[in-house]
Write a structure and sequence with these properties.
This protein is an alpha+beta fold. Among the domains are: about 90 residues, conserved putative lor/sdh protein from methanococcus maripaludis s2 fold (Beta Barrel); about 80 residues, Elongation Factor Tu (Ef-tu), domain 3, CATH 2.40.30; about 60 residues. The chain has three helices and 21 strands. Strands 2, 4, 7, 9, 10, 11, 12, 13, 14, 18 and 19 form an eleven-stranded antiparallel β-sheet that branches. α2 packs antiparallel against α3. The N terminus is likely disordered.
Length: about 350
């Protein structure tokens, strides 16, 4: 019996020893495996696109919304009263300066002109007789001589007035343009000052816009301006500011500016909405980068600059100060030196000290 218990104990001890040894062997193998994994783990390399910070001229524009106006837009009115007897132009037709537009009944005015003409002839004949008698023959009084001259001059002036009124029974175009509206028809009774037609001169158009008052020191006549129209698929035109208002509109705190551009094709129409870019200032030797290159870190705005360490490129975070912004680009006033490579694509996945691979350099 004793021998049996001793044998069982020996067997149990042998099994326990095997288990312990097996455990020790497994721990050693695990440590070796971890060390190998640590040695063979690949270093993270991030692909980036960079752009060199190159000094250059940087222009800042003021974005405005403007409205198109015709260079000249006039309601042509009748200067004499009467019934419209004839209209010589159609809606939308082109007219030349001085071209006849409408004719007003002159049947009442014509006899008055003939009477004035007869009176002027009679007064002139009387004056010539008085003059010859008084100056050549010394016949008659000086008072009669002066009265005859005065009556002749008055009659001539009256005739001139009546003839001018007769001419004014024909309404004429004041300038070259297009008939935009026809406000009367044949048979319409008009009085002096009644509008007859509206004529637009659209060979050149004027763009009017309001500039916020904070730019009052930056806008002067002659400033460069670009304008485009959504209605014309973004077609762009250039000009220069011709008028800068002296007063600020109290309702929207803007002051007016105006400039004109050619419109020989007639594509630009009055009252169109214009997208205006007014040049505010130009900075020379500015370092400009895409706006998306700037990231927000704990201490402020920063960019990642790629510098070379040995045979590797490393990303370095640089806190920067931002200057002007225009067309999705910003200027860097401090933090980046000319010629340095700034990460412009991939910056959101980069951390300070990361190894990077430059896949494209702009």
């Amino acid at each position: 019996m004793t021998n049996g218990r001793n044998g069982a104990g020996l067997a149990f001890g042998a099994v326990a020893l095997v288990v312990v040894l097996a455990g020790c062997g497994g721990s050693a193998e695990a440590d070796a495996s971890n060390e190998a994994a640590a040695v063979e783990a690949p270093t993270r390399v991030i692909n980036v696109v960079v752009e060199r910070a190159t000094p250059g001229s940087f222009a800042e524009d003021i974005a405005l919304t403007g409205t198109v106006q015709a260079a000249r837009d006039v309601m042509v009115s009748a200067e004499e009263g009467g019934v419209v007897r004839e209209l010589m132009v159609d809606l939308g037709s082109s007219v030349q300066e001085g071209q006849d537009i409408a004719r007003i009944d002159d049947s009442v005015l014509l006899p008055q002109v003939e009477r004035a003409r007869a009176e002027a002839r009679y007064a002139e004949d009387t004056w010539q007789r008085r003059r010859r008698l008084f100056e050549d023959d010394g016949v008659g009084s000086e008072l009669a001589y002066l009265e005859a001259r005065l009556l002749s001059e008055q009659a001539a002036a009256q005739l001139e007035v009546m003839e001018e009124r007769l001419l004014n029974t024909v309404v004429r175009a004041p300038y070259k343009g297009v008939v935009e509206e026809r406000l009367v028809e044949v048979g319409t009774m008009v009085s002096p000052g009644s509008p007859v037609v509206r004529i637009l001169d659209v060979n050149r158009v004027t763009i009017a816009a309001g500039v916020p008052e904070r730019y009052a020191l930056d806008v002067r006549p002659g400033a460069r301006v670009r304008v485009s129209f959504d209605a014309l698929n973004g077609q762009e035109f250039e000009g220069n500011i011709q008028f800068v208002g002296s007063a600020v509109n109290p309702r929207n705190r803007t002051f007016p500016v105006e400039f004109s551009i050619p419109n020989a094709t007639g594509l630009i129409k009055p009252e169109m909405v214009a997208e205006v870019s007014l040049l505010r200032r130009v900075v020379d030797d500015a370092l400009a980068v895409p706006q998306e290159a700037v990231v927000r870190l704990t201490e402020g705005d920063a960019v990642y600059v790629v510098r070379t360490e040995g045979d590797q490129d490393v990303a370095e975070a640089r806190y920067v100060e931002i200057g002007l912004a225009q067309d999705n680009r910003v200027t860097i006033t401090s933090g980046v030196a000319p010629g340095e490579r700034v990460v412009v694509v991939g910056q959101q996945g980069v951390a300070n000290g990361d190894i990077v691979r430059v896949v494209e350099a702009r």
